[in-house]
């Protein structure tokens, strides 16, 4: 299936991005793998539902698992449910959040981004990830994906032309693209 | 306060069992604990009810004690013991000759050790490493140390003992060299208080070493740290041991609804004994070894890691501390050091707690000229006995409580307290009320020891606010909710950080975000 | 961390966030149900310790899988509950009759007019309410006098060089053969012939929800064996029911431990197959311009879990005269045999209330208050019974709509 833009992650950041893209009259697909933590006491699907009502194709409860890249651009992603139906678009927004929402995964030594293998800003070795004092600032909460100065995601140190990150998945020091920039880039292709 | 026949210092399993025995023999008994019941090493171990098989090769006497006590505890503490059975497995590279000798030694010690084929072992316990080359079935079991200690405390109280928690013994009352009481302080009060007794028993584990110096006595003790890892659910139904010379990470115990892997054994300095924590390195080591026992552990969720301190006691004849005993040690300080009125009980194991209590109470009674005999092996502990939970008629919210407290549930009010407060461990308000009333608690950490509250997968992330509110209500201290939460999360964090990856890391983010925004 | 870890149903990935509890339709109406988190991952830790911790209130689970759709951790909450019921719960005669859809179906079909008459009579319905526990508000789906398979065997499918196999399911075979005929017409129009599977049994969903796991497993093995043969002959296996499809693709491996990895990619609803064939350009269908239908699309629970609704929606949009409203994804409350039991009737209707309101709203939005051309479209036959009984609006499977739209 083909869309103008695909937003990966249906939390607060993903829904905000979707709303922006719908404002620009784009055909948008929102891949929403469960919900955000902020939604604890409200209807968990409220924001996703609002996006669907505005015309976005919302894949509720689905999760992006892999991507096809070519010449520094993302061509398509695949999801758990649509494993034989590539979802294509000109523009991709990564908004999968941090650990809770599985935007970032970890093993005993490493933290990584599972869909694109994007560069993650963190210190290897888990003893560097926390402070012994629960109430102190926690290093692991500042880790996240790296972007270039225009907010495009880095993979292997190289900017991906049509992949932007937004929300919690960003490293604390990473630049976030502004929407005028994203829409300019989009119009340029 | 009046003069007691005996003061027991230390509210771990040894002190609790000793207070019970003393009280049952008619002595007026006071137990003093500086913190909460079971807050030391008694609450930081495997929860293994040894069959004795583990000691059969190296320590026949210890093995015989274990199997005797194992049978007694199954009988008198049925709600604390789960008769899971145990396996000793031999893996490629281990010696089958060792296994043969092991079976022989077990039988010599009276332990029913049955060699079975690897195939049979896998049928009994599908989680064991399928590459095993030999297996022996033994009557190991799982025992809940919190519940066992509580049951002893409650029984002691029912026999007239007084329990004084949150009071620290700072020294001894002396009269002509004789110990005739202790000096205690409590938090927030500068002046110490004297409490007199005809005999004082030290049952304070590794902390005995510091206390006894106040009496001008020295006991050669070494703190030995043991780190353990808790997995989120039952990975295996039986206790699984490695059939070789005891070593790191060679036991996996199904404890309540979790699995506990341990342990390490490292001598540590005395300075750290009040703040024991497992390190990431210890967790790595435990996992590396543990997966050869049960391969599934390599990808099973870990909820936390913790560490306890064993008191290793040097034989008196041994100056350099090489020869260390893990057996039961009763020191009569009148005989040993010329200090009458003081006895120390140490060494031993969770499994032999009742026997330790019997031995030290015998010594106390001899000093006091009391003739009463020990009956602790004959009378069931509170909660032990038949309590049905497998019935459609028993409401679900009550079943977890029955599983934990056995017949003690008859003292809980489920009509008003059926609401489940801790969801992971299915702890109801009725159990919280019971713990507050029966055992006395200061905070959520105390409540945890007596109910399992917050010990489950979420470690309190989800239900801690509710728990704090209920506790504040039950204690009648509505302003302390936030303090309760902060104390508990800080304490949980200590066990989460050594296993800070995968789902534990995800849970940690959840915990941080749900509880920090409000600070 | 892996997508599926050691424990069944990804039990241990549960972070206890309770989002599943918030979306559970049963939780909202029934205080006796402990909710998906407690019934699923929380309860499972206790059941692993001792089966005596099984909670009989698990019978209230609708198996709608909305908990799984909402779970940010990938825990198969519904599968855990479903598997626990299979392992620990008992069952009774009424559950047996409701669960054995193809046995009861094959007993009823030869006597269809009699059975339909008898099942529809008021005293009989009251008796069933009293003695078997089937709610008297329910109309039993009527049984067809002639099975779909007898019709199908007489159809000449010889003129094709490419084929698909059709898993028709109990509903098509015993209750509504027309839906099967519609599928054959569509597939033939796409240039493919239709084969029946060598052997077909009920997918087992009703057996599973009534705790008859061993029989479900036997039937699953027979179905999978037939499907493997069809796949070896180069055929995809098409279906019309979202529930049968979901059961055979996902519950076979997760709940019944039936290995289906090589079957799964070839087993799909007609709408997915047709969409992909049309998009790739291999198939082109021409639709009538004069079919004026106003459609409110209802995503059945299992369709939501499959995540395939867009295939259907995209196909319906290709029909020129169709006006389409996608309704929000709500449960209708019937959940297969659940709503047929008299103790569940009130819950069933309470859950469905939001959907029924929404159907009313969709009708207004489409300006079809008095329009006979207003239908609800869904892939699930039990949703159809529930919606038709509760709202009076006719419900059509998209396959029938697409067949009707063929030129």
Return the structural class of chain C.
Answer: alpha/beta
Span of the ends, CA to CA of chain B: 43 Å
Which regions of chain C contain 5 or more consecutive residues with pLDDT less than 50? Answer: 1-6
Identify the CATH homologous superfamily of the largest domain in chain B. Answer: FAD/NAD(P)-binding domain
Shape of chain C: globular
Largest interface: B-C, 33 and 30 residues
Instruction: Give the helix tally of chain B.
Output: 17
The name CATH uses for the topology of the largest domain in chain C is: Rossmann fold
Radius of gyration of chain C: 21 Å
User: Hey, roughly how much beta strand do the residues of chain B contain?
Assistant: 15-25%
* Low-pLDDT residue intervals, each spanning 5 or more residues of chain B: none
Helix content of chain C: 40-55%
Largest beta sheet: strand ordering of chain C: 2-1-3-4
Walk me through what this model shows.
The complex is a heterotrimer of chains A (189), B (519) and C (407). Chain A is an alpha/beta fold. Chain A has a single domain (2-187), classed as FAD/NAD(P)-binding domain (3-Layer(bba) Sandwich), CATH 3.50.50.60. Chain A has helices spanning 12-23, 46-53, 179-188, and strands at 5-8, 28-32, 57-60, 64-70, 73-79, 87-88, 91-94, 105-106, 111-112, 120-121, 144-145, 152-155, 158-165. In chain A, the strands form four sheets. In chain A, strands 3-2-1-7-13-12 form a six-stranded mixed β-sheet, covered by helices on one side. Chain A has a three-stranded antiparallel β-sheet with strand order 4-5-6, with no helix packed on it. Chain A has a two-stranded antiparallel ribbon with strand order 8-9. The two termini of chain A are 20 Å apart. By secondary structure, chain B is of the alpha+beta class. Chain B has helices spanning 13-24, 53-56, 60-76, 96-108, 118-124, 145-158, 208-213, 280-293, 333-337, 353-368, 396-405, 414-417, 429-438, 444-451, 464-475, 481-496, 502-516, and strands at residues 4-9, 29-32, 48-49, 81-82, 86-90, 114-116, 134-138, 141-143, 162-164, 168-175, 178-185, 193-202, 221-231, 239-242, 251-255, 258-262, 266-267, 302-314, 324-325, 328-332, 342-347, 420-422, 427-428. The two termini of chain B are 43 Å apart. The model of chain B has no long low-confidence stretch (mean pLDDT 93). Chain C has 407 residues and is α/β, with parallel strands linked by helices. Chain C folds into four domains: 8-88, Alpha-helical ferredoxin (Fumarate Reductase Iron-sulfur Protein, Chain B, domain 2, Orthogonal Bundle), CATH 1.10.1060.10; 93-132, no CATH class; 148-279, Rossmann fold, CATH 3.40.50; 293-405, Rossmann fold. Chain C has 21 helices and eight strands. In chain C, helix 20 links the parallel strand 7 and strand 8. Chain C is globular, with a radius of gyration of 21 Å. Residues 1-6 of chain C have low confidence and may be disordered. Chains in contact: A-B, A-C, B-C. The interface between B and C is medium-sized, with 33 and 30 residues.
């Amino acid at each position: 299936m083909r869309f103008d833009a695909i937003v990966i992650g249906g939390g607060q950041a993903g829904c905000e991005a979707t709303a922006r893209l719908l404002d620009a009259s784009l055909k948008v697909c929102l891949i929403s793998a469960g919900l955000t933590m902020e939604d604890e006491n409200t209807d968990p699907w409220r924001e996703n539902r609002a996006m669907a009502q505005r015309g976005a194709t919302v894949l509720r409860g689905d999760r992006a698992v892999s991507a096809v890249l070519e010449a520094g651009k993302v061509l398509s992603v695949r999801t758990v449910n649509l494993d034989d139906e590539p979802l294509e678009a000109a523009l991709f927004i990564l908004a999968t959040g941090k650990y809770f929402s599985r935007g970032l995964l970890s093993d005993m030594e490493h933290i990584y981004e599972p869909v694109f293998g994007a560069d993650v800003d963190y210190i290897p070795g888990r003893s560097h990830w926390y402070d012994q004092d629960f109430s102190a600032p926690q290093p692991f909460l500042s880790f996240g994906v790296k972007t270039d100065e225009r907010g495009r995601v880095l993979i292997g140190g190289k900017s991906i032309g049509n992949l932007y990150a937004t929300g919690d998945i960003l490293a604390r020091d990473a630049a976030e693209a502004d929407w005028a920039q994203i829409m300019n880039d989009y119009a340029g292709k | 306060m009046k003069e007691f026949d005996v003061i027991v210092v230390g509210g771990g399993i040894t002190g609790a069992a000793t207070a019970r025995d003393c009280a049952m023999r008619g002595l007026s008994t006071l137990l003093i604990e500086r913190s909460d019941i079971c807050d030391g090493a008694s609450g930081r171990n495997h929860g293994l009810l040894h069959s004795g098989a583990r000691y059969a090769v190296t320590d026949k006497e210890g093995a015989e004690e274990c199997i005797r006590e194992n049978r007694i505890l199954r009988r008198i503490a049925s709600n604390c013991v789960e008769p899971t059975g145990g396996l000793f497995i031999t893996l490629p590279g281990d010696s089958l000759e060792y296994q043969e000798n092991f079976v022989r030694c077990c039988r010599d010690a009276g332990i029913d050790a049955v060699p079975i084929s690897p195939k049979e072992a896998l049928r009994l316990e599908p989680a064991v490493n399928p590459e095993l080359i030999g297996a022996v079935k033994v009557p190991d079991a799982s025992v809940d140390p919190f519940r066992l200690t509580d049951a002893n405390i409650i029984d002691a109280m029912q026999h007239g003992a007084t329990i004084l928690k949150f009071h620290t013994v700072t020294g001894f009352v002396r009269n002509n060299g004789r110990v005739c009481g202790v000096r205690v302080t409590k938090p927030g009060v500068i002046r110490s208080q004297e409490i007199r007794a005809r005999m004082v028993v030290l049952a304070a584990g590794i902390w005995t070493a510091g206390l006894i110096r106040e009496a001008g006595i020295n006991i050669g003790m070494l703190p030995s740290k043991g780190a353990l890892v808790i997995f989120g659910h039952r990975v295996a139904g039986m206790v699984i041991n490695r059939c070789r010379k005891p070593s790191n990470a060679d036991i996996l115990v199904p404890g309540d609804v979790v699995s506990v892997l341990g342990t390490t054994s490292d001598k540590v300095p005395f300075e750290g004994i009040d703040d024991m924590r497992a390190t990431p390195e210890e967790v790595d080591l435990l996992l590396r070894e543990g997966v050869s026992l049960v391969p599934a552990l390599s990808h099973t969720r870990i909820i936390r890691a913790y560490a306890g301190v064993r008191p290793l006691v040097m034989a008196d004849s041994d100056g350099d501390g090489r020869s260390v005993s893990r057996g039961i040690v009763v020191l009569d300080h009148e005989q040993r050091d010329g200090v009458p009125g003081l006895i120390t009980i140490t060494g031993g194991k969770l499994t032999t707690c009742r026997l330790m209590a019997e031995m030290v109470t015998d010594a106390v009674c001899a000093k006091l000229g009391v003739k009463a005999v020990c009956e602790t092996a004959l009378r069931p502990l509170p909660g032990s006995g038949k309590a049905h939970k497998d019935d459609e008629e028993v409401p679900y919210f009550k079943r977890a409580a029955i599983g934990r407290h056995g017949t003690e549930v008859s003292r809980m009010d489920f009509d008003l307290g059926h609401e489940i407060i801790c969801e992971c461990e299915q702890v109801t308000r009725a159990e919280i009320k019971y713990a507050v009333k029966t055992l006395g608690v200061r905070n959520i950490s105390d409540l945890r020891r007596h109910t399992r509250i917050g010990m489950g997968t979420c470690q309190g992330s989800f239900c801690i606010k509710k728990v704090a509110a209920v506790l504040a209500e039950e204690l009648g201290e509505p302003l302390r909710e936030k303090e309760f939460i902060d104390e508990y999360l800080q304490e949980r964090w200590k066990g989460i950080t050594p296993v800070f990856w995968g789902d534990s890391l995800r849970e940690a983010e959840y915990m941080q975000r749900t509880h920090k925004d409000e600070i | 961390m892996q997508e599926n870890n050691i424990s069944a149903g990804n039990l241990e990935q549960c972070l206890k966030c309770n989002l599943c509890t918030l979306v559970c339709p049963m939780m909202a109406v029934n205080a006796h149900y402990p909710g998906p988190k407690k019934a699923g991952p929380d309860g499972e830790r206790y059941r692993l310790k001792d089966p005596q911790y099984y909670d009989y209130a698990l019978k209230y689970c609708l198996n709608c899988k909305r908990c799984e759709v909402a779970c940010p951790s990938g825990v198969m909450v519904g599968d855990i509950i479903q598997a626990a019921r299979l392992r620990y719960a008992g069952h009774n005669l009424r559950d047996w009759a409701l669960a054995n859809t193809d046995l009861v179906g094959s007993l009823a079909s030869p006597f269809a007019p009699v059975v339909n008459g008898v099942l529809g009579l008021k005293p009989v319905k009251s008796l069933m309410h009293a003695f078997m526990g089937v709610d008297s508000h329910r109309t039993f789906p009527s049984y067809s006098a002639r099975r779909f398979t007898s019709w199908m065997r007489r159809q000449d499918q010889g003129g094709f060089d490419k084929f698909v196999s059709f898993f028709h399911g109990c509903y098509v075979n015993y209750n509504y053969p027309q839906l099967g005929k519609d599928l054959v017409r569509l597939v033939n129009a796409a240039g493919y012939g239709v084969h029946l599977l060598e052997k077909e049994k009920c997918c087992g969903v009703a057996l599973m929800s009534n705790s008859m796991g061993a029989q479900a497993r036997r039937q699953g093995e027979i179905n999978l064996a037939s499907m493997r043969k069809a796949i070896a002959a180069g055929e995809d296996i098409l279906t019309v029911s979202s529930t049968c499809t979901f059961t055979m693709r996902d519950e076979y491996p997760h709940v019944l431990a039936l290995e289906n990895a090589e079957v799964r990619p070839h087993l799909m609803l007609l709408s997915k197959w047709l969409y992909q064939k049309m998009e790739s350009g291999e198939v082109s269908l021409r639709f009538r311009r004069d079919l004026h239908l106003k459609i409110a699309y209802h995503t059945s629970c299992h369709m939501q879990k499959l995540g395939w609704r867009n295939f259907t929606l995209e196909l319906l949009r290709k029909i020129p005269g169709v006006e389409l409203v996608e309704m929000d994804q709500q449960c209708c409350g019937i959940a297969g045999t659940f709503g047929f039991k008299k103790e569940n009737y009130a819950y069933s209707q309470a859950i469905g209330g939001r959907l029924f309101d929404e159907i009313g709203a969709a009708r207004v939005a489409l300006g079809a208050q008095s329009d006979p051309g207003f239908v609800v479209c869904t892939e699930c036959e039990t949703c159809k019974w529930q919606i038709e009984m509760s709202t009076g609006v006719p419900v059509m499977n998209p396959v029938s709509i697409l067949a009707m739209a063929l030129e």
